[in-house]
Amino acid sequence: MKAAFLYGPKDLRFKEMEVPVPGPGEVVIKPKVALTCGTDVKQYMRGYPLLKPPFPFGHEASGVVLSVGEGVSKFAVGDRVVAHATAPCNTCYYCKKGQHSMCENFIANQGAFAEAWKIPKAIVDQNMFKIPDNLPFADAALLEPLSCATYGIEESNIHLGDTVVVNGAGPIGLLFVKLATLKGAKVIVSDMSEKRLALAKKLGASEIVNVTKVTDQVKAVIDLTEEKRGVDVAIEAIGLPETWEKTIAMARRGGTVLLFGGPPGGTTITIETQRLHYSQLTIKGVFNTTPRHVLAAFELLKQRVITAADFVGNEYRLEDLEKAILNHKEGNVIKNAILFD
User: Fold this and answer.
1) Are 113 and 57 contacting, i.e. CB atoms less than 8 angstroms apart?
2) pLDDT per residue as tens digits for the range 323-335
3) Which residues contact 81 (CB under 8 A, 6 or more apart)?
4) Per-residue pLDDT tens for 100-113?
5) Domains recognised in the chain with CATH numbers
């Protein structure tokens, strides 16, 4: 089998390997569709602090079961399945506190850009699902990003009638737009791409702000709120320190700020202490997801709340993966698909 590995920034290589054999509780799947994402682009461009190269590449895919290990009863060879890329241990301090995204021993399973992908037991047990026959593989492959956005939306505590800004109309930002709309919020979206802003409108955004056409992004957003008081919930889905600061500045007094995008390591932001204190802002960092939100995301996919038709731009073969990543980086697509058949 052929598998993609990252040996360092901009150093993508393919390795010929033996097809993995599942151990007890494990499953090996043959991907049918794998998707590119912003994290893939970041890993390709600058590496990833949680993984030491060389490491297998890719984490969003769906496919069919190739083989199952001893003790696996929920899945059988030939089943159409999708697996999330992580799972908590359920035994550490944070898991026992119910903070599964902070798990000290969480399983991270890269390697979706390959002709076979072994799924660890913890993921098989908690975050792997059979795909209904009427759910396309490409739709199911959206499970990982949708579960992260589902977790973020619940952590933002959006209420009916709230005004929400989403800064960044990439894959995660657009998922936030759809979910916030489902929560009954008026959604404002800011981004640099007219194409992405148009999709944000399609997914339910009430207002859009093209940051290349305004002199003050913060003021442009606040001016769209009732009495120009600021938004109830401000969400950052880009991962840049300067955007974090702008997102904080858009919140009303007593508002909530959700910082989801992951900036480069070692970067910092500045917050005016009087504004933080006297405006009683709630500022939350959110990372990864939990099994409960993975399940919720899968149910949303089965309901066709989110479909690949809105998110997947171009299709590539595995050998053209680097082209797919670079095309994604240019910002002309939300995601690209890697097809294996």
Assistant:
1) yes
2) 999 999 988 889 9
3) 27, 29, 62, 63, 64, 65, 75, 128, 129, 130, 131
4) 999 999 999 999 99
5) 2-142+306-339 (3.90.180.10), 150-285 (3.40.50.720)
